[in-house]
Amino acid sequence: MKKESINKQIWNELKRSNFTTAEKLAEKLGAKVYTVLHYLNALKKAKYLKAKTTLTKLKKEDKIKLVKNTGESHPTYFGGYLRDKNTNRKIKIYDSNYVRPRQVSIDEIQKESKKRYKLYLQAILELKQDEIAQIKINKKFKEFLEFENRTEYTDDYIRSTVYRFKKKLLEKGFLVLTGDYYKSNSPYILINLKEIKKELDDTGI
Q1: Does 6-92 match 106-202 in CATH topology?
Q2: Rounded Cα distance, 137 and 114, in Å
Q3: What is the pTM of this model?
Q4: Tens place of pLDDT per residue across the chain (205 aa)
Q5: How would you class 123 by CB atoms within 10 Å of its CB: exposed for 0-12, middle for 13-18, buried for 19 or more?
Q6: Three-state secondary structure readout of the chain
Q7: CATH placement of domain 6-92
Q8: CA-CA distance, 142 to 137, in Å (whole number)?
Q9: What are the sequence ranges of the domains in the chain?
Q10: What is the architecture, at CATH level 2, of domain 106-202?
Q11: Which residues pair with 42 in a beta bridge?
């Protein structure tokens, strides 16, 4: 069975709770507080939540309550929009005047790729394991990337992004695939944490 996304879990907990806080939700779900706050602030701005605060953005201790339970599917949040499948509504969270997209240089693309590679290395080191399921690395990288860019990414996008970084580390010998890698539904990877740490230190932005 596919594990529910963290935002889906938050949505379900909000439907079951009276008043709660981001801190309590994070503790119960085993998630980072900033990850929970990222989603809650979007729900608050879209008027799905009632909060006992006068501030625009929630703090981890602010009491909140779901006041707009639109149904089973959780509203997804990415690209500055909250999308609710239950009502077929698309709500803009970040208001800004339209600006024609500027042409992105090769240097900027390379810099962004290097930043994401650095996040991938940090995700591996954060887990502190020399043998781990690939899906856990992907999940941690997704968490870091979503926090960095304040948006959500699909699992397919994460897998395609991780593939390039994993290939690079395999070629350097810092990662090794276990014998049953291609047979398992949850393949494991052997990690040289010392070399990953050195690679991170050598990666400048």
Answers
A1: yes
A2: 18
A3: 0.50
A4: 456 889 999 999 999 998 999 999 999 999 889 899 999 999 999 999 999 887 788 999 999 999 999 999 999 998 788 999 999 999 988 754 444 445 667 788 888 899 999 999 999 999 999 999 889 999 999 999 888 877 778 888 888 899 999 999 999 999 998 866 555 566 789 999 999 999 999 886 5
A5: buried
A6: CCCCCHHHHHHHHHHHCCCECHHHHHHHHCCCHHHHHHHHHHHHHCCCEEECCCCCCCCCCCCEEECCCCCCCCCEEECCEEEECCCCEEEECCCCCCCCCCCCCHHHHHHHHHHHHHHHHHHHHHHCCCEEEHHHHHHHHHHHHHHHHCCCCCHHHHHHHHHHHHHHHHHHCCEEECCCCCCCCCCEEEECHHHHHHHHHHCCC
A7: 1.10.10.10
A8: 9
A9: 6-92, 106-202
A10: Orthogonal Bundle (1.10)
A11: none
Residue that is written with structure tokens 């539904």 in the block: 185
At 136, the amino acid letter reads K
